[in-house]
Every structure is written in structure tokens, then in C-alpha cells.
TrEMBL record:
PANTHER family: V-TYPE PROTON ATPASE SUBUNIT A3, VACUOLAR PROTON ATPASES. The lineage of its organism: Eukaryota, Viridiplantae, Streptophyta, Embryophyta, Tracheophyta. It is found in: Membrane. This is V-type proton ATPase subunit a. It is a multi-pass membrane protein. The chain crosses the membrane at residues 33-56, 92-110, 211-232. It comes from Rhizophora mucronata (Asiatic mangrove). Its main location: membrane. Keywords: Hydrogen ion transport, Ion transport, Membrane, Transmembrane, Transmembrane helix, Transport. One of its GO terms (molecular function) is proton-transporting ATPase activity, rotational mechanism. One of its GO terms (cellular component) is vacuolar proton-transporting V-type ATPase complex.
Length: 274
């Protein structure tokens, strides 16, 4: 179970890191400062810290209850940890990480819509007045240029989109981390099926002291092992891994907005040739 959490947090961090490379490639500094950085702080301030506690508990052999530590990190952050303390200064570290995680939420939500609005206003500042042109062709070009450059900035739409994105990431950080527990469930189911086939088929047939029953039991055990444990369990693990890559991993960086649909038109081909 703990290993699945470590793998999940590591993969989600990789996904957020890829969002940084996307932002730098498209030269979008807003996504670096108001998406990548607060997301890294929020995820690692909570679940990165949980991963650290898991590793420390493994190394020290402590009997600390990590469920208690994480729950009371929110409910009673100033209380003493007692037997659940894993290292000196743990309470101070938890307070700092909790504050950083709380600050990262409005950091993701508020600045970006206002900065986008400011950029839009600065981009169109000074374009209220258009020069006079003498020809109809120049006037038509100016009208087209004016219509493209003066698209309205829907602040409410941008803010709602950012609000949805922030809520999705905050809640998704919890649900996605829990979703990686399916790896633990797969290993648990595999071990239980293995023990059932071994005890209820092979060992049971061995106890009859009959060669025919033993041969039948071995055949059933072989087919059950190959059909269920090797084929079905492998397919199940592949589908779960595919789901984790597609949802929990790719939603950190992959947008897939695609391209605007333009219907096929012979007239547009003629315009391109000209």
C-alpha cells in the first residue's frame, strides 16, 4: 500500500514537471508562476510529505500512526505529536507545509485571471483610433484587423475556468493519490487468488491419496494459474496502469484542446493558391 502511494506521488510530480516544459515551450510565464509552482507546493506539501514520512518510518522502524499524523495535521496542527513524532522539529515542519499548501490554493486561483485581463488591456491600448485610408481595400483590411484585435475579454468566463481548474486540481490531488491504491489492491487480489488455488485445489487434491484426483487437481491448478493469474490478472494490471497513465498522470499536463474545425471548401483552396 505504501509503495503504491510513493509511486503515485512520483508519477504525479513527473506530470506537473512536464507541465513546466509545456509552459516554457509555449513561452507562457503565467503557467509557470501561477500553475506549476503552486501545484508543486500543494502536492508535495501534503502527499510529498506523506511519502517522506513513509520512508522515514521504514528506515527507523517507528510505530507511528501515519493516518493519525496526516489527519491531525489539519484538525490540530499545534498539538504535540507524542509517540507519532518521527523526527525532531516535525510539528514546525508540518505547520510550514500546511500554511504553504493553503497559500498555494489562492495562488493558483486569483492572480492569473487578473493578469490575463491586464495583458489584454495592454495589448489593445492605443488601438481605439484608426488611421484614415483612401481606398476601399484599405478600409476593408482595417475593419478586418479591428474585428480580430478587439475581441472582448470575458473575465467571468476566464475566472470560472480558473476556479474549475483549481478545484479540480485540489480535489484531484486527494482522489488521484487514493486512486493509486488500486496497485495495492491488485497485488492483494493476486496473492489471495494464488493462495486459494494452491490450498483449495493442489493441496486438497493431494490429501485424497488418489493418483487420478491428484492429476485432475494438477491440471485444474495449471489451467487456473495460466488462465486467471497470468492472463486475466495481466490484462487487469495493464488496464489499471493504462487508466492511471491516462487520468492521474496526463491530467497534470495534457490538455488536448486540438484545432478549430474548418469544413472543407474548394473556395478556401483557391484562396490559398492565390
Amino acid at each position: 500500500m505504501k509503495m503504491s502511494i510513493l509511486l503515485g506521488v512520483a508519477q504525479m510530480n513527473l506530470g506537473i514537471l512536464l507541465s513546466y516544459f509545456n509552459a516554457t515551450y509555449f513561452r507562457n510565464s503565467l503557467n509557470v508562476w501561477f500553475q506549476f509552482i503552486p501545484q508543486m507546493i500543494f502536492l508535495n506539501g501534503l502527499f510529498g510529505y506523506l511519502s517522506l514520512l513513509i520512508i522515514v518510518k521504514w528506515c527507523t522502524g517507528s510505530q507511528a500512526d501515519l493516518y493519525h499524523v496526516m489527519i491531525y495535521m489539519f484538525l490540530s496542527p499545534t498539538d504535540e505529536l507524542g509517540e507519532n513524532q518521527l523526527f525532531p522539529g516535525q510539528k514546525t515542519v508540518q505547520l510550514v507545509l500546511l500554511l504553504l499548501s493553503l497559500v498555494s490554493v489562492p495562488w493558483m486561483l486569483l492572480p492569473k485571471p487578473f493578469l490575463l485581463k491586464m495583458q489584454h488591456e495592454n495589448r489593445h491600448q492605443g488601438q481605439s483610433y484608426t488611421p484614415l485610408h483612401s481606398t476601399e481595400e484599405s478600409l476593408q483590411l482595417e475593419v478586418n484587423h479591428h474585428s480580430h484585435d478587439h475581441e472582448e475579454f470575458e473575465f467571468s468566463e476566464v475566472f470560472v475556468h480558473q476556479l474549475i481548474h483549481t478545484i479540480e486540481f485540489v480535489l484531484g490531488a486527494v482522489s488521484n493519490t487514493a486512486s493509486y491504491l488500486r496497485l495495492w489492491a491488485l497485488s492483494l487480489a493476486h496473492s489471495e487468488l494464488s493462495s486459494v488455488f494452491y490450498e483449495k485445489v493442489l493441496i486438497l487434491s493431494w490429501g485424497f491419496n488418489n493418483i487420478i484426483i491428484l492429476i485432475v487437481g494438477i491440471i485444474i491448478f495449471i489451467f487456473a494459474t495460466v488462465g486467471v493469474l497470468l492472463v486475466m490478472e495481466t490484462l487487469s494490471a495493464f488496464l489499471h496502469a493504462l487508466r492511471l497513465h491516462w487520468v492521474e498522470f496526463q491530467n497534470k499536463f495534457y490538455e488536448g484542446d486540438g484545432y478549430k474545425f474548418h469544413p472543407f471548401s474548394l473556395a478556401s483552396l483557391d484562396d490559398e493558391d492565390e
